[in-house]
Amino acid sequence: MAKRTSICNVLLRHWKAIILLVTPVIFSPLPIHFSSTENSKIAACGYAVIIMAVYWASEALPLPVTGLLPIFLFPMLGIQSARDVSVNYAKDAIFLLIGSVMFAIAIERWNLHKRIALRVLLTVGVEPKRLMLGMMSATAFLSMWINNTATTAMMVPTVENITGGIPTDDESDPREKHTLMQKTDEKTGLLSAGASGRGAYRKPEDLVRIVEYDDAEDKTQDEPLFLNEESDGRSREQADRMAKGLLLCICYAANIGGIATLTGSSTNILAVEVIEALYPESKGIDFATWFFFGFPTMLLILIVAYIYLLWLFLDCSCLLGCRKRCREHWMRNQSSAAYLVVKKQYNELGPVSFAEKVVLFHFVLLVLLWFFRDMKFLHLENGQAAGWTYYFLRGYVTDASTVMMIIISLFFWPSRPPNFMCCRNREDTEASEPAPSILDWETVHQKMPWGLVFLIGGGYALADGIEVSGLSVLLSRLFKSASGFLPVTLVLIVTTLVAFVTELISNAPVAAIALPILANLAEGICIHPFHLLVPATIASAFAFMLPVASPPNAIVLQSDKIQLYDMVKSGFLLNIIGILVLNIAIGTYGFPLYGLDTLPPWAKAHRFCNNTLTTVATSTSALLNSTLVPDV
């Protein structure tokens, strides 16, 4: 018995090594059996896909390392040459990802993201429901442009300072603390968190006035507040629930915010590259066309999530604006303390620096250049470009070249105003040293997640291998049996599966494996490929239940105020909410935006299908009646 136990312990300790070695052996009969047939490439590609899927799911190897497997697997299995595979790791979308991450590093380096977040909180307000709204809106906005992990890591300390009790100032006058303690002892014998928080940043005379005001106010009440442990216990319970709500709303908003923009998530960029690789004749999806669908969808999900979290953690009374006296008193105190915390952190940033203004200018310029680059949403005669790329060769300038142009500017733009020749201050007798640039390579090298490049490149290589080997054709034929499903039902099934699988596996591997398969599924049942690819990509961001689903969840779970049960309980229903909103979005304004009511001529299945898709009316019944049946 002891030997069996020790063997099991050894196996459990080395389970990753076992999966790493056993997986290729178990599935080796697949390429061996078909090696002498015409389907040898298809079987070999299926073998490689299975190995990568198992490694990504189990993390037997680091995710970026698994992304490098096609470089030696595909050549050895006779699928593609190493030269053809390696091209996938230097595609246009890869440099779009690198450029967007570099710009995010510039924003973080000069604390522009922190200033924006704190300014939003001060503008929206710090009353509990306003505080949650400010936290979610600021986090979601920042996650549209910078890494959601960095956004969460910045916002969590602010929430913990607000909800974990306001720290007292060790350098304050001892008479200040004595005066405050004396006044509270005369009243209840307890020191409330709200009074403590306000007193930490005020003068002694202000403290006396505040406590005396509370005393006078309480004397007008029928019964005093916080007179016993029971009532104080209720206030602590409310504070704990509020802390949970604020922490969870940050990680949820960080995941939701990446939906809005093409650069908000690596899976969005992966989807666009898969579309361009599989359908080179299509117009693809650029920053503007993604934004016009992603931003309204993100906004809808964020609003519904905000209402849901208010209901879950602040009760219906707060949602409806009907507060009890005890809750109103607690909220007023906490809000005052919260305001002081946020205001203190904002003041510590000092005035807006020249470097922040430079980064903000480049940020606005970059977004405008992205929006008005090609303007594919405007259909002009003869296919003429409507944006500023009109002055360049058609199709030569991309989102990647745009962001790289801005990034290179940041590498030589000074972080201080020039102080030489005619720009020198009159008070300076000697010219100052050159100011450091907004970005430098050392900072980029330290903060750049280079592994993400290999991970996304592996996804491109996988999609390309599926296409070249002929596995895509086989999948399209197999998926024709799913033509009996209505597109509405199929999208609901796909988004549900992707959303819940993402809870167990990182979203990038899920998208890398699922998107090529879903493209072939769309071809097999003769519907527009975007009808499945776009909602599946967005659904991969619905990682709300488990800490392994996304880094923001793991960061928030490290707080002692959050338990795993809290995240699972609130995240499960939020997953359902996100899936329903996403399906409504793709079934309404997604149709005219992407032209989902017709099968485009660039789709490979166009020649096999009866292109009799009728224009979908605004009613749901018309949408259901527009289902295509393949003519085979």
Automatic annotation (TrEMBL):
Record's protein name: Solute carrier family 13 member 5-like isoform X1
Membrane topology: Multi-pass membrane protein
Transmembrane segments: 12-30, 94-111, 131-147, 245-270, 290-314, 354-372, 392-413, 485-518, 530-550, 571-591
Subcellular location(s) of the protein: Membrane
Record-level Gene Ontology MF annotations: C4-dicarboxylate transmembrane transporter activity; dicarboxylic acid transmembrane transporter activity; solute:sodium symporter activity
Principal cellular location given in the protein's record: membrane
Entry-linked InterPro entries: SLC13A/DASS (IPR001898)
Keywords: Membrane, Transmembrane, Transmembrane helix
GO cellular component terms attached to this protein's record: plasma membrane
Family of the protein in this entry: Belongs to the SLC13A/DASS transporter (TC 2.A.47) family. NADC subfamily.
